[in-house]
Amino acid sequence: MAKIKLTKGELKKQRDTLRQYERYLPTLQLKKQQLQAEILHQHNLLSEKKTLLEKKRNAVLAWAGLLGEGNVIQKEWLISEKTVASARNIAGVELPVFSEMAFAQPDYDLFLLPLWVDNGLEALRAIVALEAEIVFIERGIEALKRELRITTQRVNLFEKIKIPEAQEAIRVIKIYIGDQMANAVGRCKIAKRKIEQAQMLEVAA
Questions:
Q1: Range of the domain at 171
Q2: Quick check: is 205 in a domain?
Q3: Residues 102, 85: contact at Cβ < 8 Å?
Q4: Which long-range contacts (CB under 8 A, 24 or more apart) does 135-138 make?
Q5: Does 182 fall in a domain?
Q6: Alpha-carbon distances, residue 50 vs 19, 47, 131 (angstroms)
Q7: In-domain check, residue 115
Q8: I want to staple 129 with a disulfide (CB 3.0 to 4.6 A). Which of 31, 87, 101, 117 is the partner?
Q9: How far is 171 from 167, CA to CA, in rounded Å?
Q10: What one-character DSSP code corresponds to residue 24?
Q11: Does the residue 203 lie in any domain?
């Protein structure tokens, strides 16, 4: 703890500081709880999306052999033109939220390609979009975890250092001021007795 002045002015300053810490701490604790809850929610969402991705990949495997028929589906058909996303504020963290992925309309002759191409292309694009959404969720979780680390450090700083320091400073100053007042009262009593004794001597003389 830094050196403090043992004065009434310092006592007021320390009391004001303590009140500020005690007002701010619940806000930090609430933010910490919100972040923890959102991280849990995002982890559950991530698990769901990964399970869904696995199901979609397994479904594609059933007809994946058809893809070898003269490069029916071109790789460039699976490259997105645009990823649409938004942001959601969670306890001060801008969380990226995946909306959709836009693909260019492929230019192919419907009469030359197999009938399953449209459905196959749609299934593959759904996988690509889902993989992108998973990346968004993972980035969001990392952002939330970073903010949680910072918030937890601040909570610990207030709970374990700042508030106890202010409380100790107040205790030390109050003891000092109390001692000074007691000493002042003692000196007053001594001075009063001396005055009374001097007056009695004058009367006796």
A1: 8-190
A2: no
A3: no
A4: 136/85, 136/96, 136/97, 136/98, 137/42, 137/45, 137/46, 137/49, 137/98, 138/46
A5: yes
A6: 47, 5, 8
A7: yes
A8: 101
A9: 6
A10: H
A11: no
